[in-house]
Structures are given as C-alpha cells and as structure tokens.
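Input record, target 12 of the design panel.
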C-alpha cells in the first residue's frame, strides 16, 4: 500500500508541478493580453484623437484657404490641378478644374513657364503676368510629399487696381510737371520782359503783361485747388449741407467768376435758367461743379461763340445743361472722361489738364443724390454736359455727406444772362 502511495506521489507531483506551471503561463498570457488590450485601447483612442485633430486641421486649412483673397492652387508634377480654393473658382467658371492641366484651362504660357521653372529649379519664385486683361502677381513653391513625389503650390494675387493706380500716379506727376512748368516759365519771361526796354517799360505793355501774369496765376491756383479737392474727396474731411437754394442765383455766381476767362477768347456765357427754380443743394459745391463744366466749355470752345446754360424740371429733379460749340465728347469716351486722371485727346485744344475736374464733379453731384453725364457728339452739335439735382420740395432724405471744399480761383465782375 505504501509502495502504491509512493508511486502515486511520484506520478502526481510532476503532473501537479506541470499544471502549476501551465496555470502560471496562462495567468501571464492573460496579463499580457490584458496589457495589450489596454495598449490597443490607448492606441485606438490616440488614433481617434489624431484623426479628429487632423480633420479639424484640414477644415481650418480649407477655411483659411477659402477665406483668403489670393487665388491658391496645388498642381502635381504634370501641371494638373489637384485642388484649389474658392477664390480661384472664378478663373474656371462652372468648369471642374480638378485633374485638368492649368495651362490648358487658362492658356497662359507665362504661368506654365513659372510652374516648370519652379519644378526644375526646386526654388520659390515670384513674377507678374497678365491674364485676360487682369494683372496678377504669382508666387510658386515646391511642396515635397515623398522622395519621388512633389507638388507645386501657386498663389495668385489680383494687382490690377494697384497697377492702374501706379499708372495713374505716374500720369498725374507727368501732367502736374507739365502744367506747372508752362505757367511758371511764362510768368518768368513776362516779368523779365517788364524790365527790358532800357528799364523803361511802356505802361500799356506793362498792363498787358500783368494781365497775362494774372491769367497764369489763375491757372496755377486752379491746378492746386483740384489737387486739394482730390485729397479732400479721398479723406472725407469736408461736410456738405443741403438747403433749398435759388438755382439761377448759383448759376449766375458761377458764371461771374469765369467771365474774364471767357472774354480772353471772346466767348459769351448765356444763362436760360428760370428764376423760379429752387433746388436742394450745397450752393458752394454746386458752384464748384458749374465752374468746372463752364471752364471746360471755355477751354474747348472756338472764339466768338456762345456757351449756353439751361435748366428743365423733371419729376423730383431739375436737369441742368451746359452746351458749347467745341469738338464735343466722342461716344466711346462718355463714361471714361469721368474717371480720375483720365484725359481725352488734347491735341485739338493744345491744353493739358490733370483729369480731375470731371471726377470731382461726379463725386459732388452723386453726393447730392443726382446724376451727371455727357452727350456724345455723333451729330456734331458740340460739347454737351448734363447733371441733375433734387428740387427743393422733393420728398427725399439726403444724409450729410463728405465732399470737397469750394474753390474760388477766378475773379470776375460781370455776367451775361438771357431770360
């Protein structure tokens, strides 16, 4: 019996030990599996958090890209469009540009060369080019994703307004230089002439010379006032006050200031504005408009002709017309002549200007709630400018608006009035 117990013990002990070891291994495996499950859960949570952050980042980048004023595009190495922002959509219209070659859609060899150069030289580059009469400044940069895969980022900014502004400023400087040089030179020569003739200038010649000096001084004052007007328009520092005013009185005062200039060309300025017309206006600013338009009529009119000013009542407005016998405005320039710094062909008048007068007139009239325009000269009837202002009893509310100050650079003593 004892021998059987010994044999059983000898057989059971190794089995028990083996079972114990197996149990320990199972426990270790369970602990390992549990630890790995925890690690998997942690990694899964981390992955979900990363995907959420990545999604937020993509949304933020997409929103920032779409909110940008610049046109942003991503191209692959073949020049095909991968993606682009909303600002770039106007280049393609309703066409889906993804997957298309940029140069095929836009037909711009300059932009295609810019992309090719960026890919070949692996360098960022910035250039300006023209696409369908629009000036763009483009910047390109290589974006490497992997060793064998690259993309090109293209940012395009519309700089048409900046180009036009720079051109206008250059033209303004050139015009001002010419306008200042001519009267200053004449004044200098006239003054020098006064002290010639053995220091005994004749009284009649001296008076004529002084009149010429006064005329050139008026031209300088007119030029400086237009520059001041432009500055005031852009800054909005002046205030306009609209009150019921006699239109005929405003017209008479505007004409009176320019009679000396009209007399130098033997011109007559005739007003047919009824005394009963009353308008809602700032009298000083309306005289500024009339002064500019009459000044233009004097400049373009041939000698011994008449400049006629008339007025007519509309529903809630009064229309004022200035008609001269000059060359008039060509049909294709009726809108452009009101642009700042724009000048029509001056070869017919022999007189330059800054191109500001009509732009100032347009600003003032629009601030009055009216309209200003030019009639084309297709029928050869001379220059014809018209504008409207509200009647004094019109049922309109016009807010006080910024406008330019009055200019009084010409002095006169008489007026021609008919009716």
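The sequence produced for target 12 reads:
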């Amino acid at each position: 019996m004892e021998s059987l117990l010994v044999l059983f013990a000898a057989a059971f002990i190794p089995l028990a030990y083996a079972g114990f070891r197996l149990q320990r291994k199972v426990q270790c495996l369970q602990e390992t599996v549990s630890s790995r499950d925890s690690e998997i859960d942690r990694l899964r949570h981390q992955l979900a958090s990363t995907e959420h952050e990545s999604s937020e980042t993509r949304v933020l980048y997409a929103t920032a890209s779409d909110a940008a004023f610049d046109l942003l595009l991503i191209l692959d190495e073949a020049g095909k469009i991968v993606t682009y922002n909303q600002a770039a959509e106007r280049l393609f219209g309703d066409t889906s540009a993804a997957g298309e070659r940029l140069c095929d859609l836009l037909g711009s060899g300059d932009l295609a060369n810019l992309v090719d150069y960026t890919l070949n030289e692996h360098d960022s580059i910035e250039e300006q080019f023209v696409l369908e009469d629009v000036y763009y400044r483009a910047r390109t940069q290589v974006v490497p994703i992997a060793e064998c895969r690259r993309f090109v980022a293209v940012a395009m900014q519309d700089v048409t307004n900046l180009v036009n502004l720079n051109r206008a400023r250059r033209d303004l400087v050139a015009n001002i230089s010419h306008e200042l040089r001519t009267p200053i030179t004449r004044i200098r020569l006239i003054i020098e002439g006064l002290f010639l003739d053995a220091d005994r200038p004749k009284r009649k010649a001296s008076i004529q010379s002084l009149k010429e000096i006064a005329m050139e001084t008026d031209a300088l004052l007119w030029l400086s006032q237009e520059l001041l007007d432009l500055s005031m328009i852009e800054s909005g520092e002046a205030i306009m006050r609209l009150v019921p005013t006699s239109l005929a009185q405003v017209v008479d005062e505007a004409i009176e200031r320019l009679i000396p200039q009209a007399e130098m060309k033997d011109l007559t300025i005739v007003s047919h504005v009824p005394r009963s017309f009353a308008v809602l206006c700032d009298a000083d600013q309306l005289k500024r408009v009339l002064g500019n338009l009459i000044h233009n009529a004097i400049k373009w009119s041939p000698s011994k002709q008449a400049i006629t000013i008339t007025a007519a009542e509309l529903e809630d407005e009064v229309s004022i017309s200035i008609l001269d016998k000059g060359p008039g405005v060509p049909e294709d320039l009726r809108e452009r002549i009101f642009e700042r710094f724009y000048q029509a062909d001056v070869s017919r008048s022999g007189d330059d200007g800054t191109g500001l007068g009509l732009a100032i007139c347009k600003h003032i009239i629009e601030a009055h709630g009216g309209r200003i325009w030019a009639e084309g000269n297709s029928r050869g009837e001379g220059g014809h400018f018209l504008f409207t202002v509200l009647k004094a009893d019109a049922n309109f509310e016009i807010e006080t608006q910024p406008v330019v100050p009055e200019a009084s650079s010409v002095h006169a003593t008489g007026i021609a009035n008919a009716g």
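The longest helix spans residues 2-67.
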